[in-house]
Specification:
It is built from five helices and five strands, in the order H-H-H-H-E-E-E-E-H-E. It is an alpha+beta fold. The strands form two sheets. The chain has a three-stranded mixed beta sheet with strand order 4-3-5, with no helix packed on it. The protein has a two-stranded antiparallel ribbon with strand order 1-2. Strand 3 and strand 4 form a beta hairpin. The longest helix has 13 residues.
């Protein structure tokens, strides 16, 4: 399959490189002039270690269970700052926001049995993208797809 090229005009600045590790996330924070507080580092480390989509409350609980004392307000403020700067992912769901470590465009598989969200990188054939562009008149530069389904083998809960 052919990758979808991203075409930029001369007035657009290039997209920053993808964040693929905790070190990349820390470097991005520093490059943006964001203070890398102890609490911010805790949050980044947790997201990169656990590699799950977590609510602010889950992040708060896990960090405190690990003996890393952090307040509710600090968790929320740091999550908002990190997601606003594109360092972490924020997914808005009906039951609240979830945060993940992958910030670049990607898709999700949502398990309706476990409520788990899995990150996947799906590449749509260029012919389909071109058809969508022709029908809408919009040049596609990114896409995210949400898949929903049930486990083939039921999980005992």
């Amino acid at each position: 399959m052919e990758s979808l090229p991203i075409v930029m005009s001369s007035t657009q600045s290039p997209k920053p490189s993808a964040i693929r590790s905790l070190e990349d996330a820390v470097s991005r924070c520093q490059g943006l002039g964001m203070r890398l507080s102890r609490q911010r580092r805790y949050i980044l480390e947790l997201l990169w270690t656990d590699r799950e989509h977590l609510s602010a409350r889950s992040i708060y609980d896990r960090l405190n269970q690990q003996g890393k004392e952090i307040g509710h307000t600090s968790v929320y403020q740091n999550l908002e700052a990190l997601s606003d700067q594109g360092i972490i992912e924020c997914i808005d769901r009906a039951d609240g926001r979830l945060y993940g470590n992958i910030s670049e465009a990607h898709s999700h598989v949502n398990c309706l049995d476990t409520q788990q969200i899995l990150d996947v990188h799906v590449e749509i054939p260029i012919e389909i993208l071109q058809k969508i562009e022709a029908e809408t008149g919009i040049k596609i530069t990114e896409y995210r797809i949400d898949f929903y389904g049930h486990r083939e083998v039921p999980v005992d809960l």
